[in-house]
Each structure stands twice: as structure tokens, then as C-alpha cells.
Write a structure and sequence with these properties.
heterodimer; A: alpha/beta; Elongation Factor Tu (Ef-tu), domain 3; Rossmann fold; 3 domains; 7-stranded antiparallel beta sheet; 7-stranded mixed beta sheet; 16 strands; globular; disordered C terminus; B: alpha/beta; TIM Barrel; 7-stranded parallel beta sheet; 4-stranded antiparallel beta sheet
């Protein structure tokens, strides 16, 4: 883990998201898929907590050596500020943070299940899996076409891709879960990797349990510091010896966890902000803060 | 003149700088080791340690507010036995800070440190047993803060930490839901500074001999200097460490710069130097 002053190389709009590229060779060299960085917000503003972004790509060789890429979903003041970062400005970046995805040693058929900007971390993983000779298939889902991250990249990285959108503007109409069984059959999936909303991951976890598929998932829990100090981003994880559970920090013990050990009901069941509909049937509006 | 950042808090407690990391913001210390030179930090306050291990609050545990955060970790900690095992090899436990802003589970009161009887009782019980100086951390919003401060010192506390954060909640307009899993929590961050300043000022006037550690809203050297002027002997940094792990060192450096500019020798020269108008209300005698 290093703290660096990273120069912004570029930001560009990509559908509903923004792609941010920074120069940070010390971090890029060590970054693994599933890991993230923590970026400081500008001083003198009222939003102050660092923002945490999954690493979308880290180039270690070639003309762009030492760069890191991130996908920003601008839903609040912090992510909006990052999305509008000017080229050649500097960001205070700490990383790489957290535990990334583990590669399967023997199993070869990997099914990657991505929802919305969760695809950012999984495309990075897909590159590594393909490079080590694994078969990669994907399910990529979102609400609309704009929220499907780089569909061409998904096609390039995988044998088969199932794209699903809630409004049917790209691929099949539906949700990730609708496409999952068929994709698993078609690809002969032996291991599943997933990133997306907690609800979707819970469904994917149940599917994996049913099919007896080993899986790893990048979970998102609201973070304060990203470096293990504040103990706010905890997820309840069952102990290996079966003697109960621990609230583990997703920043240092995750964000990638084995879904079979996540106590989903405990994590999401009582969660006030995660309940599907607000009282009196009012529509859910944008998440905050971001 | 020899200039130093070291502060002598009495009872053999000498800190290399007057800038510590507040409870709950230092992890176990290990997490910070790659991000800041811990030798240049005045001290670390551990998170609250309870008799038995606690799982803490359900997430989400933190939300951002204008110039602050609301949070609740629910005192997640490994319990005192695991904690002692962990610190045994590190003999530099130099003081105990008593968290008094939480609920009084025995008497079923919301905030233990709001009640003089219980505060005196608890502080006295700990001070009698402790081999190291005891600092009582009082809620900064306590209505009878001066009386509580006196009661703590009378009961045997060596000093005070001012103070425990104000209670707070967050509401999410989009979903009509609370922002925190446990619904209620506490507030931290720069927005607290004037509340902390006032509490430190009031407490320092009634127990001028006791060292006070100011915590709440310090994010710059200027903030820290203001706390010292209001009556603190040292400051603790919380939210600012989460934002900038090197903040305690930067702030200490900034205090040194201020001392130089004013021609002062130690941070103690600033202590309680706030000039109030002649005739400003005198603290009431007990």
C-alpha cells in the first residue's frame, strides 16, 4: 500500500459513467483485480470523506505503463467532483487496498456476473483469467443501455456474453438473475465471480449455493477511511470453524469475500437503506452520498 | 530559547507532541504504519475496550453530512482480555481514557456522563485501581459540563478529554429511511469545532490545573492552536485522520510554526491564553 500524488491523465464520459485515468506506477505495479484505491476529496469543501474506487485496469507495460483506470458512477458530490477532474491535476491516492479475487488453480471455466459499474472490477479480472488460459463467460446487466459498461470489451474478453437491461434497450430485457442459469449451463461454469448491488449478489450467492459452485464476490459496504482505521465498513462473515461470525472490515478483510460465508440476512435483512420500497409506495430516488 | 513540541501532562505523562489520534480512528495502530511516521504522533487512543468482546452495530455505520459524518460502530471491540494480550508486548500504555458518552446500561440512562453521581462513581472506581493516569472523556454537549468536570477531578481523574461526540442521526430523503443501520449514532468532523472549543473553555475555567485533551473538529494546526488557547493541553484528531492519515504530523508541524511565529517555547505557553473581556462571568464556585 502506497500513498501517492497521482496525476490525472484523462477523464472521459462513457455512457452513464466516467472513466478516470491516473498515473500511479507504484500502485499500478501491485494492483490486483478486486482491489481498490482511496482518493482524497478537495479541501475546503463540505464533503470530506475519501472516495473509494475499484481498480478497473492497471497497465504495467507498454506506452501507458504505470496508469490506473477507474469507472465513476457520479451519484453524489464526491463522485461528481472526481468525474470532472481536470487532466494534469493531482489526486491524493492510497492503494492498492483490500484483498482481491483469487484465481482458481484447477478449475478452468469462469463465469463472471457483473451488474452496473460492478463490471469495472470484473473486466480487470477477466483480463487476468484469460491471460492464464481460463475460459471466461460473462453476464452483464444494468437498468439501461447507458449503464452497461463497455459491452464490446465484455465481448472481447469472453467466450460468450449475455447482456441484460431492465428496459430492454440493450440485449435481453430482464435482470442479471434471469440470464444466470442459462449462462451457467452454456459456459460449463465451474467457478463464479460477481460484483454488483448487494441484492443481486445475494441472489447470485443463493444460485451458486444451489448449484454447488464456488464463488467470490466483491461487496460494497459504506466506507469511512478505506484503510482499516474506522471499522465502519463491516460485513458479517461466518467463522471457518462454525463458531459464529465476525463483523469484518470490507476494506482490509475484503472487499472480495466467499459468498458462502457472508451472513446475507444479517447483512441486508435489517438494512434500512436497502429495503426495496420506501413506505407508502413512494419511488426510490438517487442514492446519497456518492 | 529552546523550542519544543513536547507536552508534560503531569504524573509522569510526557508526550512527544500535543497531537494524538482519537479513539476509534487509529485502528490497531498497524494500519497506519505505512501511511504516517508513528514516532511523530503524540499518542494513540485505542478504540473503546469493553469487558467482553462486542460485535458492534449493523451496517451501514457511517454517512457523510456537511463538514462532518454521522456514525455508529456500536463499540465493536475484541474485549479486554484479547486487547491486553495484544498490547502486552508493547509496554507503552501510558494512560487510560474513560468513555463516558455512551449509555449507562446498569441504570438504563441514555448517556452515563450526563449524571454527576454515576460519573463520579465510575471515575473514582477506575482511578483507585489504575496504575496510570486516568482521563475522563465527558460528552461535549453535557448540560452541566463544569460540574461534571469538577466531579471527575475530585473523584481522582488526572485529566479530562473534551469531549464525547454529540448524538446524531442521518435521514435519507430518497428512501425515507435512516442513513445508519442502528438509526441513531454520533457526529464527528470539522463541523464540531465551535462546540468543542466552548466545552474545553468551560471545563478549563473550573479545573484549571487538570490537563485537558480536546477532541472534536480539529483538522488543521490553526484548529489545534485554538483548542490550546481555549484551555486544552493537547488535542486528538479523529475524522481528519480518516481523510488524511498524515494529519497528526502535519498539525504538529503547524503548531511548531505558530510557536515560532509568536516567539513561544512550548505548546503549554498557549494554554488558556484566551483573552476574555474584563468582567466576563466568573465560573461559579461549587
Amino acid at each position: 500500500m502506497k500513498r501517492v500524488r497521482a496525476e490525472v491523465l484523462s477523464t472521459r464520459k462513457m455512457g452513464a459513467y466516467h472513466q478516470l485515468t491516473v498515473v500511479a506506477p507504484e500502485i499500478a505495479e501491485k494492483a490486483r483485480p478486486g482491489q481498490f484505491v482511496s482518493i482524497r476529496m478537495p479541501t475546503g469543501r463540505e464533503f470530506l470523506l475519501r472516495r473509494h474506487l475499484a481498480i478497473h485496469d492497471a497497465s504495467r507495460r507498454g506506452g501507458w505503463a504505470g496508469t490506473l483506470e477507474f469507472v465513476i458512477d457520479p451519484t453524489g458530490p464526491g463522485t461528481a467532483w472526481l468525474a470532472s477532474a481536470r487532466a494534469h491535476s493531482f489526486l491524493d491516492v492510497i492503494g492498492p487496498l483490500g484483498k482481491g479475487f483469487a484465481h482458481p488453480r484447477r478449475l478452468t471455466n469462469c463465469l463472471l456476473v457483473a451488474e452496473r459499474h460492478g463490471a469495472a472490477t470484473l473486466y480487470f479480472l477477466a483480463q487476468e483469467l484469460v491471460a492464464t488460459g481460463k475460459r471466461v463467460d460473462m453476464v452483464v446487466g444494468a437498468e439501461t443501455m447507458e449503464q452497461v459498461l463497455k459491452p464490446i470489451e465484455a465481448k472481447r474478453l469472453s467466450q460468450t456474453v449475455a447482456i441484460v437491461t431492465a428496459d430492454g434497450t440493450l440485449g435481453d430485457r430482464g435482470a442479471v438473475m434471469d440470464a444466470l442459469p442459462e449462462a451457467a449451463d452454456r459456459s460449463g461454469a465451474q467457478v463464479v465471480y460477481a460484483a454488483g448491488s448487494a441484492r443481486t449478489l445475494e441472489y447470485v450467492a443463493a444460485f451458486c449455493r444451489e448449484r454447488g459452485l464456488p464463488a467470490q464476490m466483491a461487496l460494497e459496504e459504506r466506507m469511512g477511511c478505506g484503510t482499516g482505521l474506522c471499522q465502519t465498513c463491516v460485513v458479517p462473515i461466518a467463522r471457518k470453524d462454525g463458531s459464529g461470525y465476525d463483523n469484518l472490515r470490507s476494506c482490509v478483510d475484503g472487499p472480495v469475500f466467499n459468498p458462502a460465508r457472508v451472513l446475507w440476512d444479517r447483512w441486508l435483512g435489517e438494512r434500512p437503506t436497502m429495503l426495496p420500497t420506501p413506505p407508502e409506495g413512494l419511488p426510490v430516488t438517487r442514492s446519497w452520498p456518492g | 530559547m529552546k523550542r519544543t513540541l513536547a507536552v508534560d501532562l503531569g504524573a509522569g505523562l510526557v508526550l512527544p507532541t500535543p497531537v494524538l489520534i482519537a479513539s476509534g480512528c487509529a485502528g490497531t495502530g498497524k494500519e497506519l504504519s505505512g501511511l504516517v511516521d508513528l514516532r511523530k504522533v503524540g499518542g494513540l487512543v485505542s478504540r473503546t475496550i469493553t469487558l467482553d468482546a462486542r460485535k458492534g452495530s449493523p451496517p451501514p455505520r457511517i454517512a457523510e453530512t456537511p463538514s462532518g459524518t454521522v456514525w455508529s460502530t456500536g463499540l465493536q471491540n475484541p474485549g479486554v482480555h484479547a486487547f491486553i494480550d495484544a498490547v502486552q508486548t508493547r509496554p507503552e500504555v501510558v494512560a487510560v481514557e474513560l468513555h463516558l458518552s455512551g449509555p449507562d446500561e446498569e441504570l438504563r440512562r441514555d448517556v452515563l456522563g450526563e449524571h454527576i453521581d454515576r460519573t463520579g462513581e465510575i471515575v473514582g472506581a477506575v482511578a483507585r485501581m489504575s496504575l496510570v493516569p486516568v482521563f475522563a472523556k465527558l460528552p461535549m454537549t453535557a448540560t452541566e459540563l463544569p460540574e461534571l468536570a469538577r466531579a471527575c477531578i475530585r473523584a481522582g481523574a488526572h485529566g479530562l478529554t473534551i469531549g464525547g461526540p454529540p448524538p446524531a442521526i442521518g435521514v435519507v430523503a430518497g428512501t425515507l429511511r435512516p442513513a445508519l443501520g442502528p438509526v441513531t449514532g454520533w457526529m464527528s468532523g470539522p463541523a464540531l469545532k465551535p462546540i468543542t472549543l466552548r466545552a474545553v473553555f468551560e471545563a478549563a475555567r473550573v479545573v484549571p490545573e487538570a490537563p485537558i485533551m480536546a477532541v472534536g473538529g480539529v483538522r488543521s494546526a490553526e484548529d489545534a492552536v485554538e483548542m490550546l488557547i481555549a484551555g486544552a493541553s493537547a488535542v486528538q484528531i479523529g475524522t481528519a485522520v480518516l481523510v488524511d492519515p498524515a494529519a497528526p504530523v502535519e498539525i504538529a508541524r503547524g503548531i511548531a510554526g505558530y510557536l515560532k511565529e509568536k516567539g513561544l517555547g512550548t505548546p503549554d505557553d498557549l494554554r488558556a491564553r484566551l483573552r476574555v473581556p474584563v468582567g466576563f462571568r466568573e465560573p461559579e464556585e461549587p
